[in-house]
Each structure stands twice: as structure tokens, then as C-alpha cells.
Amino acid sequence: MKEALEMVIAFIKGLMQPLITVFALMVGSSLVTSGKVSAEQAWLIPVGVIAYWFADKSGIWDKLFKGEGPKAESPIVTGGDKASGWGDCGDYDHDNETVSTGFSPAEETGDKKVDEILDGIFAEAKADGRKADVAYVSSHIVSYLGAHGDELDDYVKEQLILAGVNYATIAFKEITGSKVAPTTYAEVAQPQKFWANFKHKCTVKNYGLARGPLMTLRDLLSRREAL
Fold it and tell me: Could you tell me the pTM of the whole model?
């Protein structure tokens, strides 16, 4: 019975395109007959309908308004599948339904040289009228390492990177509501694949806001593993 009903529904859907196109032709003809529009103007009605159906069937609407889906490198998942490379959704805090952009403030580490660098970042944030939170500071640690990393000895560089990983991890958890975050570069080496896995298993209301902390964390994990 269910299969028969599905066949009927599919048949009705199949008739929609030609029926609406015929209806558009009838409307255009009626407008021309009544003298309300010219034949050239009326012709635009069925042309528009046909163009709409073409765009719908070809997936153009999805690309324009819904964004492109995961690239070919991303896993194809179905309802009962589990995406690889990420923990269970049990690791996700489903009680935290509200995505907050108010990140925790960054603090000093106790290492004199690292704290001097952080003090400079804090001062820069203040001058820019920004809060020296974990997202801001971790991203500026990446910038500092890019500009001055070669000037630091190995110990200071390591401590600065670890501080950045800590801040970026906190930022990622706070923006997504997740109890866990990537801990190795391999997990985020392909960001598109990571998001496909993460979104399949966990609900993130605005994962776009988490892209900054994720890419910062990705950079710092790579630097940490290269030490």
C-alpha cells in the first residue's frame, strides 16, 4: 500500500511541470487577447516558468541560495551512518542550544616571556577597541608567530603555541557548544571534510562563526606538531 501511494505521489509530481507550463501559456495567451500585454511580453511568462524548472532540476537554486555541499573528498553519509574522524554526538552538549559569540577572556600564562608577548596583544586589542578574548588572542598569536617566530627560542615558541592552542580550543567549544574540539592536525587537515563529519553528528546552529577559531586552531596544531 505504501509503495503504491509513493508511486501515485511521484506520478503527480511528474505532471506538475507540464501542467504549470501549459497554464503559463494559457495565461500569456489570455493577456495578449485582452490587450493587456504584447505578444513579446506574454512570451516571457512560459519562458520564465521553463527556466525555473530547469534551474530546479539542475540544482542551480541549491548552489545559489543554499551554498555548495561538501566536496568530493567529504564522506557520503546516510541516516544511520556514523562519520569517521569525530566523537559520538554524546560528546556534544545538547543542552547548550544557544550559540554565543561572547568568548572567555584570555589570561596570562605565568611564563614571563610569553606573558610579555600576550601583554602586547592585549594592548593591541585595547587600542582597537576589541576585547582580549580567547578568539582574538589566539588568532593574534598565529600572526605573531608568522612575523616573529624565528626570533624566539624553542622553549618560548613552544609555550606560546600551547597557549594559543588552549585559547583556540576554548573558543571553538564556546562557539559550537561542543564538549570536545580537535586535538590533532590530522583531524582538521581538510576543513571541508571535518565540517561534513562534525555537522553530521552534532547540531551547530551557526557553524560559520566557528570557522575562525577552527582555522586558528588548525594552524596552531600544525605548528605544535612541527616542534
Answer: 0.58
